[in-house]
Records
---
Amino acid sequence: MSGLFDPFDLRGLELGNRIVMAPLTRSRSGPNRIPNSLMGTYYAQRASAGLIISEATTVGEMANGWVETPGLYTREQSEAWKPVVAAVHEKGGKIFAQLWHTGRASHSDFHGGKLPVAPSSIAIHDQEPRKTNLGPRPNDVPRALETSEISGVVADYSRAASLAREAGFDGVEIHGANGYLVDQFLQSKTNHRTDEYGGSIENRYRFLDEVTTAVAAVFGANRVGVRISPNGCFNDMGSPDYRETFLHVATQLDRFGLAYLHVVDGLAFGFHGLGEPMLLSEFRKVFHGPLMGNCGYTREDADARVRSGDADLIAFGRDFMSTPDLVERFRNNWPLNPPSDMSVWYSHGPEGYVDFPAFSQ
């Protein structure tokens, strides 16, 4: 079987290896959410990854829910992404844009006092205060989307995909994980709707199906990935029927011929503990396209998963933060840089972002 360092044909997109840079929110886009040259440097430093998935990038004003993250809902934002994408391509890399709507994980501070939207009016509980542009705040009780509004949110994803295509991205990933809007629709804990978007697993899946259909119409399904987190508790998630839900989701997504299914399956942190964790091998039985694992993998674990056939690709997040030449270090058994301090993950300057050294013998 192929190993972690072997090339991979991602539905016609040739990747130099099976190592993926996971999406990592870094808050360097400024208050106007416009990409910049610092971000271009950051991504270009990491372009030896087989594939880069951009930080979560919002699809509209109401999608915003994190300080100084980038967007893809204006022409200015799309134009500003072009040199960032070009910097990756100039180094021989490939990059997808991750499309994001925070849903109830947002706050009214981001929306001029308007409540964030969600499938149902259920607040996040047992979490630290929400960090907003005006300071820490208790989580809002969100406003449930009207049925008539949902098609407009789907259209936001379509527009963002179009802007990503204009910016030169090789594809897009739909963020359906970690308790954001798509995940909120999928899970019974957060979706108590009584219309066609709630109740049964089939109905709760409907929103993701419509978003995927709309985005695939722009890029082609073979350039669209979807990320899910069946084992995750981040943003107060975790539903008793998680196994049935996510096997149904994967089975339905298999019909599209997607670029990949990105499963946050690792148990390094954030397991909801509601039963046995879902493994890549379970998803392999129902999803027959490229499969990507993520969350806390070591080089050895990742290579073993690829060689066993459980996964085609493995995404690394925190290691890529502090070690821009992660692929070369893995390949040559060189030591990694010390882990990045959490205090600089979401700071707004070059420190802790583009100042980590490459390895020198």
---
Amino acid sequence: MTAEERARMNELCIQIQNEKSYSKFEELMREVTALMSAKESRFPESKFAPAGTGQKVLHATAIRTMKGINSYDDEVIEIHVAGAEPLYSELRVENSFTDEHGNTLALQIPAPIDLKLQAPSDYLALRSSPQTTS
């Protein structure tokens, strides 16, 4: 957690311990949950979307490196996305990654990768489950 998030979490926990109003308690709990969700989403192995978003993880493979379209462009990696329609299964992006310390890294090919797509919940709707018949 950032220093600000940690300080806010401490404040919220103290307020929650002393809160007598249920509606205020609920509001404080929602804020604690949002802080915890934000922290959880920073872990690469997290399967949950940060609060206020929805996400999907696509499995892919980086299969080769190449020069960009222009000679001065950085190295590009070609990625094949598993399960995508054939016409849309190939992506090409700059071979530049950042680790948790801010260091710039390049992917070594071939490499399995996960693509995480995230969208604000304002643009998502709850999908109903298909009805089963007996």
---
Amino acid sequence: MKIPLLDLKAQYSQIKDEIRQAVDEVLESQQFILGPRVSELESEIASYSRCKYALGVSSGTDALLLALMALGTGHGDIVITTPYTFFATAGCIARLGAKPVFADIDPATFNIDPRKLETLLEKMTSEELSRVRAVIPVHLFGQMADMQSIVPICRKYGLKIIEDAAQAIGSECPFGGGVKRAGSIGDIGCFSFFPSKNLGGIGDGGMVVTNDADLYEKMKILRVHGSSPKYYHRAVGGNFRLDEIQAAVLLVKLKYLDTWTEARQKNARIYDELLSGVVSEHFRTPAVLPGYRHIYNQYCIRTAKRDDLKVHLRENGVATEIYYPLPMHLQECFRYLGYKKGDFPEAEEAALTSLALPVYPEMGADGLEYTADLIRNFIMR
């Protein structure tokens, strides 16, 4: 049996006619930049994420960059985030001349550990604290970070929060006696519409969301080279616009997002059940915190035998992926930060032990059972 990590062709085959009609309508209109479909998608994503405002941008990376720029991040500033994430989180900080500073992760969720964040801030000098511009918690693999704990810490120190929700559109966590969606808690939330995301386009795309009118207006201007009105520049921005064709495709897909998420959640529950017999301190399935809505952009298991298991699955037709093999603090380009191996042991351990299994919505029960059987037999031998 051959099982890909993600089967976008299966998804496309179900909505092909709708996608082609949506794209053809854009082509007929010949309106490709910041047209009515971008505006409609912004309204829909704002509503879906339970935010007041949304802006379509060119990628998830540019969403982070725009958010940081809107907060005035620049040379000499410090931005705190996790060392266990996709490169864009730390890369955007560095691109603006600011310094990425890391706090280790919670081994159960892969997300930044609020206790480590608080300890880091407590140990900073007053001069260092004065340079901290923001904190970027990453909602990794589809489960939100512990925002109930993170927000009071950040507010105590007067810090802005950018939610990196690139992998977490529609995910939820308990907050303030209720439930909040990814992107709606911090000052700015950032989404990615990279094709492999739960809501993926046919190329790059992203979105920023906020409940702050001033930040919204600032990002709206920065998105188009800092111009308002056209050709009159209040600031140096960038070309961060979302294409009209991407918006048209995403509007079609958004209608199916919750159905696809439910299918991913169902597949995750099946994995949990099938693998329950081998769960131990040496083999773990994803932890879902009480009251959280995990959307399973990835279903990541953990085992010290990760590399051998990956080979075993590949030899038997099952594709997997390692997210991520090297934490940010050990990347060559961040050597100047002065971190060393051992500084963030939980992130380093996750990089050595985590493995993402296929969990896409169209994956059938036979594929799930086949994959789980291979894993059980490998772990128990």
---
Amino acid sequence: MEGYIELPKCTLRYRISGSGPAVVLLHGYLESLTIWEELTMELEPDYTVLAVDLPGHGKSICKEEVIGMDFMADSVSAVMRAVSISKAHLVGHSMGGYASLAFAERYPNWLTGLCLLHSTPNADTHEKRSARMADIKLVKEGKKEQIVENNIPRLFANHNQQKLMGEINHIKSIARKTSESGIVGALNGMAQRPDRNHIIEQALFPVTMIFGKHDNLISMEVAQTLEERHRKARTIYLENSGHMGFIEEPEQTFSAIKSILK
């Protein structure tokens, strides 16, 4: 079932299906809830699956200049209330992982678990923050297409880009539908987010981190440092993936997520 809820600062789209314990899926930057269709089909026989278009993405309209991770977390909580979900396992991809960590900070008692899929609890480096500001400048100059063409292929491991060109073009088509205001708001929000390593350290629920060994955005050095720091968390590596394991290695990714939920 697809639905919408109206909040003071945005309209949110969501999809809910299946039955059983709840799993909430949060997509990444320049994506929408449609990226979860295959994973949803895998999970819905055993779980209630809720996917949300984060503010400013997909069909969730939000024109705030800064769409912070706390704001995204509050938006997700509003959808959960609307569909009567009080406990869930959150799975957040990339930016969705940042929003999930903010959710865990604000609503820890609502979580049965947290999975960071190609995401980290680290704040932006100075270089990454500068890159986000450069992208904001491009958007305001009317060059959104340049951002799509620059960003989307890099999400995939270099050795997968040629054979997955169809999938890359599909993600580009989703990215092109992201509004300029949504892109600017999300970039500002990601750039301003704080370090949230303490959320993993203090978590009273299971935390899992899934990384791709060929990720162009999260180096193996960063992933291994996080694994070493967060020994209490479970760390899984996808052997042939970049930043999009649910597309690059779907069977392995879905199997890992299902094992986490069990």
